[in-house]
Amino acid sequence: MAEIIIVKNAEAAGELAAEAILRLVARKPDAVLGVATGSTPLSTYQALARTVQAENLDLSAVRGFALDEYVGIPVEHPESYRSVITREVVEPLGLTPSLVHVPNGRLDGIQHAGDEYEAAIRAAGGVDLQILGIGRTGHIGFNEPGSSLASLTRTKTLTEQTRIDNARFFDSIDDVPTHCITQGLGTILRAEHLVLLAFGEAKADAVAAAVEGAVTSSQPGSVIQLHAHATVIVDEAAASKL
Ligand code: GLP
């Protein structure tokens, strides 16, 4: 059973998640953070950045692994997850770019990219704290419904719903990639501590299914119930169907 914390808004959630990360880094300066993209974790990164600045903290030894990446857009594209992680996480927190990994979504070498990413996570000793958002389809990372509960990093096809939801980051839906490479549900479950965040009514069904529904691959977020240390931080709207 995950620990559920209901807070007023995304800012309050970001503060809590940032505190958990800072406690970890205080005891392990080279902690391995699992970072997520999307709108949801932004308040966490912003809260972290504020404290880093106010207290002049040095996070340069912190290591990072992103959950996923698009396949089929250049890594320099402003919406590639490499670009997003650089802009939202690495630069504002003063992380060391070479210590922050994003799956390789380039078409050349894509058949080995999953195994290489798994090996890199293993070599780092595993993820200490994994930040997660959840999609309206119930996806975590880009593990859409139907993903094996034991899956590892691999390429996947994005659902139409997820492409529609992510079209806001692109000029048009036609520009949203159709494929991605994502850590698997099995990869995510290996992290030491999962912190899942969700805000707004649009996430209420996915949150209820993840927290209280059956553990099933048709609701990928439900795997958090298999984890010994999962924290779910939601606002009232996202908690409304619990
Ligand atoms: C995206 C990401 C996920 C994210 C989810 C929710 O497509 N691949 O890692 O958690 O969808 O996105 P948002 O936080 O913008 O609602």
Automatic annotation (TrEMBL):
GO cellular component terms, semicolon-separated: cytoplasm
Keywords, alphabetical: Allosteric enzyme, Carbohydrate metabolism, Hydrolase
Entry's EC annotation: 3.5.99.6
Glucosamine/galactosamine-6-phosphate isomerase domain boundaries: 10-230
Active site annotation, chain numbering: 68 (proton acceptor), 139 (proton acceptor), 144 (for ring-opening step)
Signal peptide: none
Reaction it catalyzes: alpha-D-glucosamine 6-phosphate + H2O = beta-D-fructose 6-phosphate + NH4(+)
Positions bearing the site annotation: Part of the allosteric site: 147, 154, 156-157
Protein name from the UniProt record: Glucosamine-6-phosphate deaminase
Organism of this sequence: Microterricola gilva
